[in-house]
């Protein structure tokens, strides 16, 4: 048996159904049942156990059931016995098997500790971020320890174990022998140990019936007593009040077959109760739950406010105020007498506060109402009593009473009342726990009543409901998608893509696509469509969004998913994607760009491509070859101007190569004008004249080039000679 903390569900490895009893005895194929009950005893789910030998059950902080097997495999199920995942505690545990196991909770999350057949401890402090730790070996350990427990001190998880009369403490690196302070020398061998819910206190039980209780750090003894029962207890629970609580009392609850003993550091000594049937103890933050086949009880210390009000012949202000309110309802003048007595002592504010506080610790709605009526009655006679405490208490009690109902079965106490945020060391908020039980209407009503923000409250619940809805196989995809959209609409905080992802995980791809139609954010649609291998639809959605980064994401995904031909054909049908891919190829994949132009017979762009490539060639032959290819493409494109310009460039490159060889000066990559100017500057007038004629440079341009070059050179004689060679086309010289 294992019960989740904070009034959580109960899991047990039960026998096979009654009809199979005889068959179970005869056939090993008959399997036990794994059953999960609410805290009120309602069966939530059950399933035949078909896996390995179970050693231990436990619950995570998020109310998932952990099933620890003999081979070290841990299987995780939800509240409805639906498998979620599994993990292994390592090869060493697999080889040596699990002797004992414990599930514990720390600020890191839910952990698992294992004692193997080799008498070594292994543990994981957080099953959601699995990091296995092998604890040091205990020297001379020949048999399993009589008892052991997991402690959490200073954010470090350690193991305390008992072997006979010795206690050993295992941390990450060492094994040390420890002795509890003030332990009686005649105490005997340890049989049982228990750590409090908050890891602050430790209780030890020995074979002489002696019980020691102290701090878990083993630095201080709190109390000791003799139970006078030497039989090993079935269970022992150590109780320590939470930080900031009104109580400072610590107690130990010890259970035998038909007897329960409570002892602690209070003046009342010990209490003993008779158990009518086999019981199981569940430690809680503020008490102990006692489970049996027919009942579920909560054993806890009576709060101080309740004691003051309800003890016999109490004259506390809260008790007088409660009596005054009852007399007022009877229309008796005694109400005024009680009220005057409180007011004369100036204790009316204290009386109101006592009644409000006591109402929180009561489980019966009638008693709660009686106390709150008394508080409300007393407030009428106060001028400046702040109403926040009263209003908050009414809210808390309405929520607590709703979830304590036996059909819901979450018996939270006022100490466990819903917190804004849940973690391993405090109770999780109510709505998520109701969502895990698929009690969506109640969860929504609580969120609305507590006025939680829509994004944090109702929207999250509706999203969970939708994720559950897509798992229902009895309705068509159209019906489910329509029902979800009708319920969710445009509710803020709803992500249809998350619901669609859940539908896809359940094997309902078409439903996922239909749900994605309602998703307004393309950035959420496209990744899931790609995951579902609906790449063409993803491309259309990305283009519709206008987000170029999203389009590039899909295009590159398509490139690696499809073969080359199919990829290009897909882009042909999407001009925007094709254009963007061309831009990408211009910077990243030049050869792919050439293939795209070839496929489209785009000779003009192919010519431009070859011209661009020619400038990356270092050798002149390669450059001329690339330009020759460009020339052929321009002719095919019937672009005579580009063809003529390319032809002239080829001719110029060849001439520049000869000039460079003849004069041993760099002429390559100069423009035609610069080549002519440099030839004139160097005094090679005939070569300049040759270029002028071959490239048909206009007379005016050539004259300006020559006279500027001659002037720069200071060759006035050559300029005078040139000016007289023929009539100047540029006027007076």
TrEMBL record:
Q: Mention one GO molecular function.
A: actin binding
Task: Please report the stretch or stretches of sequence annotated as the Vps16 C-terminal domain.
Answer: 494-732
Q: What are the start and end residues of every segment in region (Disordered)? A: 1-29
Alphabetical keyword list: Coiled coil
Q: Where in the cell is it found?
A: Lysosome membrane
What is a biological process (GO) this protein takes part in? vacuole fusion, non-autophagic
| Domain Vps16 N-terminal stretches | 1-392
Q: Which Gene3D superfamilies match?
A: Vps16, C-terminal region (1.10.150.780)
Q: What is this protein called?
A: Vacuolar protein sorting-associated protein 16 homolog
Which organism does this sequence originate in?
Dryobates pubescens
Q: What is the lineage of its organism?
A: Eukaryota, Metazoa, Chordata, Craniata, Vertebrata
